[in-house]
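Exercise 7. Given the components listed, write out the predicted structure of the assembled complex. Treat all entries as one system.
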Amino acid sequence: MIDLKDIDVIFNPGTVLENKALRNVSLTVPEGQFLTVIGSNGAGKSTLLGAVSGETPIFQGTVKIDGLEVTKLGVHQRAKLAARVFQNPLAGTCASLSIEENMALAFKRGRRRGWRLALSSKRRRFFRDRIAILGIGLEDRLSDSIGLLSGGQRQAVSLVMATLSDSHLLLLDEHTAALDPRMATFILELTNTVVKEFSLTVMMVTHSMKDALASGERTIMLHEGKIIFDVAGRERQKMDVSNLLELFNQARDEDLGDDSLLLG
Amino acid sequence: MSLFAFLGTLEIGLIYGLVALGVYLTFRILDFPDLTVDGSFPMGGAVAATAIVAGINPWVATILATFSGAFCGLVTAFLAVRCGILHLLASILTMIAAFSVNIRIMGRPNIALLGEPTIFSPFESLGFDPLHVHLGVIFILVVCSSLFVIRLLSSDFGLGLRATGVNSQMVAAQGGNIGLFTYFGLALSNGLVAFSGALFAQSNSFADVTSGVGTIVVGLAAVILGQTLLSGTRIWVAVSAVILGSILYRLSVAFALSSGMFGLQASDLNLITAVLVALALVIPKMKNTVQCKMMSGRLPDSD
Amino acid sequence: MKRINGMSLFCAAVLLCMTAATSLAQSYKVAVSQIVEHPALDATRQGLLDGLKAKGYEEGKNLKFIYQTAQGNPAIAVQIAKQFVGEKPNVLVGIATPTAQALAASTRSIPVIFTAVTDPFGAKLVKNLAHPEGNVTGLSDLSPVVQHVELMQEIVPELRTIGVVFNPGEANAVALVDLLKKTAMSKGIQVVEASALKSADVQGAARIIASKVQVIYAPTDNTVASAIDALVGVANQVKIPVVGGSTSFVKNGAVASLGFDYYQVGVQTAEYVEAVLKGTPVSELPVKFARGSDLFLNQKVAKRLGITFPDAMLKRATNLK
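Answer.
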């Protein structure tokens, strides 16, 4: 569960570059909910995710994950509670390590890393079983360097890695944006499978309105650091991309102007 | 080269193999260019020699020396992680400070250990040849240190250490504390280097504050030389490679020392060493290029 | 596989050349290891070579003279020592402290003669200066510091402050500066120290103290010796004299120096080398303190600085410029 209360995020405060990225945002994502977040460039969606993961320093407000106040904790301290998949496939994995070594790193996410052998035969079997879920043959390439994999394959591994530790929160930061359309679809399907199988609470930031509606059960839209609408349930099921755009226009005071939202 | 000189070279190569191992940990694993070693190497010698002269058991003295080096590493890590000083500069600061500290520790720039007990003395008193004793003991210690490093890097903790140098963002996202890994990595690296310094002082019967000059250069040369000649991503291959690199570097120096017959003079030593190391790095590449050319030369014939 | 081939190729080449390099033996073999090349130590080596020649040991005829310099690096000094011991020379000569220590640690059978070592007892080269017990003896170049202070008093009447530039990393220099401070204190003179860790730092160190002192003392410190010109240059700018521990400094513009001609130190070292070659056991060769304290004066520089040497001093001088 995520509980954000009155969050303000200000970049470069007190300078000419001052930018209020989030303005008094409050949001509660209950246990087991799959939330999608959309918004144009600079609307604050990645900042919102960063406020949860600890990447973005918060100016004001409180962040709670699973009822625990984490506002003052750093990224690595919050990692115990939340798994992340990045937009850049290179960011979420360690290129010089093998697939199984990357998995071993994720296996110990948020837990004490000790003297134990990272790759015991028991763990290897476990990793093998888990990666077999992907159905792309990686289970036979566990000792290959992850740098040899394509971006899509790396994102797929990242998703599996997010499930190896026992947290129930998954933060997805435009994790399909850097992939070709076919691969993006595959990763999105995979995301849905994984989320169901491990009954995860999810916050997925995306550029794509279509994806935002196709996945999950609730969608919020950000604009200039504010949540401008929040739909779920029946109302959401009836919506399509054009409704969403309409809503977007209604919710805004000013003109749409140059819109960088992707319609796909 | 005489057998004596060869074994002596092997001994120094093995001792500096520990330096190479330390440099490998910082430069390759942590991606932290660390010049602290120029200070921690003589500090290892200084602490060991001072402690031995004060009547402390040589093994205990060696352990103290190792900890003193680890402390140097922690200081550098503190400056870099906590104070936000650029890593290169942080390590330079520790390095120059260590010079003064080393003179403080010893009370003077040079302490002699001739006739003092060392970790080698118990074996020498059994009547074995000192050179063989030194080589044997050092070999065992270097193998143990290497095995320790290999095992460490294969552990959960070591995996975090390895990932820190490549993708610190990912390590943080996986709950790894980058600061902790940096502290530990630098402490371990400089501990190994100081351990090497302690062995050097005991094997050669003196600790001298100037013995740190150029340690980083030798360590880096060993790492690059070893890893170029024996490439591989597996940890045990890399560790063996850097130790081998150190021995080859010392062999190059030994060769340069015996090159007087070519009209070269003593002061050409550094130049010859540099040329030899460069050759060692280039020859394998040249061979590949030549093979490629021969292959491409043959292709039209086979058409 | 390719890489391993390349490596073995390299190893083979190295070994081949090394065996080729050990050439024919001659009747006597003297191996000299020197820590670093600078004028004083080079003069010592030349003196040794010439001294041996005068005694009938000529290089190329009945003497093989092997020489290496560690270029200031103790680890290389150790490698040189191993190399030398492996070549089984008749005598090993170590010029300066770390090289002598490296040689002494590498052999307990081949005689080791050290030279230009200021404190052989502190360096544990010998346990007993009068009766060396092991295979090591030689010459100490402990500077006559007491006389140096007296000399400075003669040149600068009412002397209250002496400046000294030295490398705190050099065992020789530290021993000298300690002695200087003790001597000066007993005469009520203040010593202002400036440390230079490398020769490039000498100029800066001299600048810091030059305006605060009446005279600068240049000890027989390898770092200072390498940058003596820089030191003298700074002293000239503020018009204070430099008094040196090595006579070679006068040539570079020091006003006066009382010390050894390092060439003569080398010649005296040759006496011990000859004795060992003739079969005298090391234990019968007590550690000697280099003799021949020559007084060198530089009148040209003195005139520029407005210094007139007392007649008595001029009479004592062995060399006037």
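Discussion: The domain at 2-251 of chain A is CATH 3.40.50.300 (Rossmann fold). The first strand of chain A starts at residue 2 and ends at 11.
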